[in-house]
């Protein structure tokens, strides 16, 4: 991925437009207009619209993976603390990089095979972190259930928050993460 500041800014703007309009309805002309450049200039930074989509998803997934790894490195080794740290990191990613995350969730299926093959390692690395943390919680007896199902339920619940969570509402991301962990561990939140 080209890390130039201009490309990053164009990627951020594209993510915003993909969320507003959807990938299929977003035209190259719309992207260029949103970015404040001519349509032809867009191809100085990206090969085509598909590469723009891949850049948006790559940026968001890489940010989520980095934030998750940092959160786990800073927390205590207890399974419940790791669950909470990972859930909070996921929610924080949704707040700080919402558009990229939404595009990754809803437009992944629009990636062509080449882009999907390029990005799948990032998605798999992120899911592996979750599987490791949830497996530790299952082994410790905090969570009951089959690893694959629990992981999908937890990530599904967290991902759905992009539709309803209000960061200015009554709960911050840490409190929301506590509630989720309490639900899946069947303990009362602090």
Task: Name its key features.
DNA-binding transcription factor activity; 0% strand; Tetracycline Repressor, domain 2; 190 residues; TetR family transcriptional regulator; single chain; mainly alpha
Give structural notes.
The protein is an all-alpha fold and 190 residues long. It has a single domain, classed as Tetracycline Repressor, domain 2 (Orthogonal Bundle). The protein has 9 helices and no strands. The chain has helices spanning 5-21, 28-35, 39-45, 49-74, 79-96, 98-107, 113-139, 147-164, 173-185. Helix 1 crosses helix 2. The longest helix has 27 residues, at 113-139. It is elongated. The model has no long low-confidence stretch (mean pLDDT 91). Residues 27-46 bind DNA.
> What's the average pLDDT?
91
Strand content: under 5%
The helical percent reads: over 70%
| Distance from first to last alpha carbon | 42 Å
Helix count from the secondary structure assignment: 9
Briefly characterize the structure:
The chain is an all-alpha fold. It is built from 9 helices and no strands. Keywords: Coiled coil, DNA-binding.
Question: What secondary-structure arrangement, pairings included, does this model have?
Answer:
Elements: H1 5-21, H2 28-35, H3 39-45, H4 49-74, H5 79-96, H6 98-107, H7 113-139, H8 147-164, H9 173-185
GO molecular function: DNA-binding transcription factor activity; transcription cis-regulatory region binding
DNA-binding region: 27-46
Domain HTH tetR-type: 4-64
């Amino acid at each position: 991925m080209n890390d130039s500041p201009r490309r990053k800014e164009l990627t951020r703007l594209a993510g915003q437009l993909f969320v507003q309009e959807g990938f299929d309805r977003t035209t190259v002309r719309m992207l260029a207009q949103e970015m404040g450049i001519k349509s032809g200039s867009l191809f100085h930074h990206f090969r085509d619209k598909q590469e723009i989509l891949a850049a948006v998803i790559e940026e968001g997934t890489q940010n989520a993976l980095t934030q998750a790894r940092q959160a786990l490195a800073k927390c205590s080794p207890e399974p419940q603390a790791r669950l909470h740290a990972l859930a909070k990191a996921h929610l924080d990613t949704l707040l700080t990089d919402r558009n990229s995350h939404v595009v990754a969730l809803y437009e992944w299926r629009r990636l062509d095979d080449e882009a999907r093959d390029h990005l799948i390692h990032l998605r798999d690395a992120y899911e592996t972190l979750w599987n490791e943390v949830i497996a530790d919680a299952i082994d410790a007896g905090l969570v009951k259930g089959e690893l694959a199902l629990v992981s999908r339920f937890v990530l599904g619940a967290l991902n759905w928050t992009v539709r309803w969570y209000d960061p200015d509402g009554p709960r911050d991301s840490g409190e929301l993460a506590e509630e989720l962990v309490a639900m899946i561990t069947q303990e009362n939140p602090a």
